[in-house]
């Protein structure tokens, strides 16, 4: 058996200097691989000046660099030492390092694609365990020498699929190629999207469009390339394309309309991230623009998913489409006994100095109406960052006005029929009525 032969060779090398040289080489390769990975991490990831493709690639593969470098050093060392003496110990170390590199690479790609901004799901954890088990099983079969026999069984076992009779090995190879290429495409799309979102000089909508289109192109190329590697005729896609066109024409018009509307919104920049908008009964700030729907975050924290078709066909009130400045107001009713020539300038001065309130345009005060309770006055001021909300500055201005009310500089209006005065009047009448005690 190959395993017995390998163990016999290792036992035979124990009393030879070759086993010590191999053990020392393994230790040096492991130490050198980790040290070189840390050096590359410091020189590329911590240096913000490197923003090219090399820096992006180094940042993406920083977690899998150590096992990859260790594998490369072990393979080179084995090739060199094989010229002078036996390398039975390295024959075991190289497959183990290769399995570790494969596991770390695949797991990192999975987490980058499916769990970049959140915790790992149970399904992903289960898949990671199953994948690691399959890899270690393959290494065990390789070391024991059973792997060639297993591969022969896979190559000789044929499956009948229509007119084709692919072997089980071809089927497994096609599935593996599709999975690997799709993972690489999704990882590349996620890395490119993350990179594009950090480009401050580019408009937000353009960044989102480029990220979405680049990911779609990468996935399409990966699918076509993996199908060709699996031995499938790409002409069958014409039939699928015709069926997809019929489906779009019959039952998927709304879905297709939402996707097209999403790209239109992003390209024409009618909406951008952070715009405060109102559509029908929905109002809030644009938190995210996807290809099918737009996420609208309300002032109370609730999120509304608006289909993009509504934003194209409906009337949208965008408070910052061409100008980021938004006017916020607060209203109060002052007593008819107040002197407006003194009260109006006093109220106009309150928004000044409040954080986020603009000096230009300057705050203004309007006399809106003469109500039964007093003068209705509106205090207006402008904000240049509506994406942060209007509640904070309005509350600060109201607190300053409240201080004026407490100090007596401003007297608020009261209902024409003050119930407290009515109660006092009734009590005095009752007290003057003869026969009442």
TrEMBL record:
Transmembrane segments: 20-40, 61-80, 92-110, 131-154, 174-192, 213-230
Cross-referenced SUPFAM superfamilies: Mechanosensitive channel protein MscS (YggB), C-terminal domain, Mechanosensitive channel protein MscS (YggB), transmembrane region, Sm-like ribonucleoproteins
The organism's place on the tree of life at top rank: Bacteria
Keyword Lyase on entry: no
Domain (Mechanosensitive ion channel MscS C-terminal): residue spans on this chain: 330-385
Membrane topology listed for this record: Multi-pass membrane protein
Location in or out of the cell: Cell membrane
Chief place of localization: membrane
Mechanosensitive ion channel MscS domain location: 255-320
Family listed: Belongs to the MscS (TC 1.A.23) family.
Protein name: Mechanosensitive ion channel family protein
Organism: Massilia consociata
């Amino acid at each position: 058996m190959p395993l017995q032969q390998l163990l016999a060779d290792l036992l035979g090398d124990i009393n030879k200097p070759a086993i010590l040289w191999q053990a020392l080489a393994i230790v040096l390769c492991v130490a050198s691989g980790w040290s070189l990975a840390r050096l590359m991490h410091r020189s590329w990831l911590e240096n913000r000046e490197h923003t090219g493709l090399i820096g992006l690639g180094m940042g993406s593969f920083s977690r899998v660099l150590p096992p990859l470098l260790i594998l490369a050093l072990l393979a080179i060392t084995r090739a060199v030492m094989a010229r002078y003496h036996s390398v039975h110990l390295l024959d075991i170390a190289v497959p183990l390092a290769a399995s570790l590199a494969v596991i770390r690479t695949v797991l990192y790609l999975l987490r980058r694609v499916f769990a970049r901004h959140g915790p790992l799901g149970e399904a992903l954890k289960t898949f990671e365990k199953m994948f690691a088990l399959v890899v270690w099983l393959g290494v065990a079969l390789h070391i024991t020498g059973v792997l060639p026999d297993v591969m022969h069984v896979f190559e000789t076992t044929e499956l009948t699929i229509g007119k084709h009779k692919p072997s089980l090995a071809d089927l497994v190879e096609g599935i593996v190629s599709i999975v690997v290429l799709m993972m690489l495409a999704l990882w590349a799309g996620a890395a490119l999207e993350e990179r594009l979102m950090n480009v401050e000089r580019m408009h937000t909508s353009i960044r989102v469009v480029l990220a979405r289109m680049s990911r779609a192109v990468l996935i399409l190329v990966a699918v076509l390339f993996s199908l060709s590697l699996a031995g499938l005729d790409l002409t069958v896609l014409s039939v699928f394309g015709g069926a997809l066109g019929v489906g779009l024409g019959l039952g998927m018009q709304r879905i297709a309309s939402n996707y097209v509307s999403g790209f239109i919104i992003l390209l024409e920049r009618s909406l951008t991230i952070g715009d405060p908008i109102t559509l029908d009964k929905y109002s809030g700030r644009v938190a995210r623009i996807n290809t099918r729907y737009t996420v609208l975050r309300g002032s109370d924290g609730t999120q509304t998913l608006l289909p993009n078709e509504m934003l194209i066909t409906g009337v949208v009130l965008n408070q910052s489409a061409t100008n980021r400045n938004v006017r916020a107001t607060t209203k109060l009713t002052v007593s008819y006994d107040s002197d407006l020539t003194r009260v109006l300038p006093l109220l106009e001065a309150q928004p000044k100095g409040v954080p986020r309130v603009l000096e230009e345009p300057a705050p203004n005060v309007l006399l809106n109406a003469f109500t039964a309770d007093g003068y209705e006055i509106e205090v207006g001021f402008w904000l240049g960052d509506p994406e942060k909300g209007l509640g904070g500055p309005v509350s600060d201005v109201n607190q300053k006005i409240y201080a004026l009310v407490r100090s007596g500089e401003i007297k608020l209006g009261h209902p024409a029929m003050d119930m407290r005065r009515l109660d006092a009047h009734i009590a005095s009448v009752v007290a003057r009525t003869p026969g009442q005690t």
